[in-house]
Write a structure and sequence with these properties.
It is built from nine helices and no strands. The chain is mainly α and 455 residues long. α3 runs antiparallel to α4, α4 runs antiparallel to α5 and α8 packs parallel to α9.
Length: 455
């Protein structure tokens, strides 16, 4: 379809539609690129928050584990452990809900499910540890009491046999306490048997001591020492049971979930860090892809824009410019010009028809003006000829009259001169010679009306 068939309005609409289409293409491309960038940025921010939360949870898990170990060793930092564990469980549930990866969510859900029973077992571990501490303090008191009794017996007994039996009993007490201290320090599984064996040896030494004849103040001491040894053994058995219970809870129920939480949160933080690195690379790739696509689109749209501008110029600007030039020449009085776009069927064709009417009217006015001026010139020439003929006729008539008058005047002058000569002669006065008569000349022709001056 040619431009003349489309029309100026159609060309304008088509050009505007093409420009809008190009703008939409650019906008859609920008929206796609910015949408991908925004999506990657949001994902990167979510990964960053999750990574920081995972590292914070890892710190809390490590704090809970260290404080629990410290509580087991010296019964301190229990409050710190409780605060860290509660924060760990609470924030673990929040992180589980925020993660988008199903594998990570499932792993944190399983870890959260293991930590909840561990918190319930932790209370039993705390009770067992507190009972362990109480038993240990009772053991220390019983041991000190046995040492005091042995020192009293050594001071009251004077016989050599009694002294030997007291030294044997004192050695048994010291061995029993050494076995106990070793068990407390190392937790040796054979320590319980060693302490029981030491208690049996102490009982045998005390039985041997009780059979010896002792002085009245020292006779009651073996019985009291036996009671202290029996209480020491009972306290040790309670301590051993509490230690076994606390160790079992610590090794099987309380510490493994915390250790697993540390390992799993470390793996989660590493995985999220790797995901952040991958998201960063993907973001850079998206930026590069968007830039390349924009450059390609610009390379395609620039020729299209130039073609559109050429098409608009050819369809609108050039015809309108040619029409404006024709109208300007027509206003200057050039009526012999060719009006452009007369055959067009659009607005330019309508305008060209109107301008053609103006041109024809201008030609008609010029023709009429030329005819009017020619007619006026012919009338003026005819008028001048008529006046000229009238003046010639008048001159002929008046010239005869003037000539007669001149002849009569000459005659009258001659008569006057004759009469003057006669008078002078009569008076004898010499008369001067008369002047010669003027020559007869024909009066100039009178023209009426006078010829107009030429400016």
């Amino acid at each position: 379809m040619t431009l003349s068939r489309l029309g100026v309005r159609a060309c304008i609409f088509a050009g505007c539609a093409a420009l809008i289409g190009l703008a939409l293409v650019v906008a859609v491309n920008a929206m796609l690129g910015f949408g991908s960038l925004r999506q990657d940025t949001v994902a990167g921010e979510a990964l960053l928050r999750s990574t920081m939360a995972a590292k914070l949870l890892l710190t809390r898990a490590e704090t809970a584990r260290r404080s629990l170990l410290r509580f087991r060793l010296d019964s301190t930092q229990l409050d710190e452990h409780l605060v860290s564990t509660e924060a760990l469980v609470r924030e673990l549930a929040v992180l589980r809900d925020e993660l988008a990866d199903p594998a990570h969510k499932a792993g944190l859900a399983a870890l959260h499910g293991r930590l909840l029973p561990a918190m319930a077992q932790r209370d039993a571990f705390v009770a067992a540890t507190q009972a362990l501490v109480a038993s240990r303090q009772a053991l220390f008191g019983r041991g000190d009491a046995m040492n005091r009794l042995m020192n009293q017996m050594a001071g009251l007994s004077t016989g050599p046999e009694a002294q030997e039996a007291i030294r044997a009993a004192n050695t048994s007490v010291l061995l029993l306490r050494i076995y106990n201290w070793r068990f407390l320090a190392t937790g040796d599984p054979n320590g319980v048997a060693q302490v029981r064996d030491g208690a049996d040896r102490l009982n045998q030494a005390l039985a041997e001591l009780a059979r010896l004849p002792l002085s009245a103040p020292a006779a009651e001491l073996p019985e009291g020492l036996a009671r202290s040894a029996a209480a020491y053994a009972a306290d040790f058995e309670a301590f051993a049971r509490a230690s076994a219970r606390a160790t079992q809870l610590y090794d099987e129920a309380v510490m493994p979930p915390l250790a697993d939480a540390g390992a799993q949160l470390t793996a989660l933080a590493d995985s999220l860090t790797e995901a952040m690195r991958a998201n960063r690379l993907r973001l850079l790739e998206t930026i590069g892809t968007t830039d390349r696509r924009q450059m390609l689109l610009a390379g395609l749209l620039l020729p299209l824009g130039l073609v559109l501008a050429w098409w608009m110029s050819r369809g609108i600007v050039r015809p309108v410019g040619a029409m404006a030039a024709a109208m300007h020449r027509l206003a200057q009085g050039e009526t012999g010009i060719q009006i452009p776009s007369r055959d067009a069927r659009d607005e330019l064709g309508t305008m060209a028809g109107a301008v053609e009417v103006f041109r024809r009217n201008a030609e008609e006015r010029a023709r009429l003006e030329a005819e009017r001026q020619h007619a006026e010139a012919r009338v003026e020439a005819e008028k001048r000829q008529a006046l000229h003929r009238l003046a010639e006729a008048f001159q002929e008539k008046v010239g005869g009259i003037i000539e007669g008058v001149a002849v009569a005047a000459s005659q009258m002058r001659a008569t006057a001169e004759t009469m003057s000569g006669a008078a002078r002669q009569a008076a004898d006065v010499p008369a001067p010679s008369p002047p010669p008569p003027p020559p007869r000349s024909r009066a100039p022709a009178c023209r009426w009306p006078p010829a107009p001056r030429r400016s």
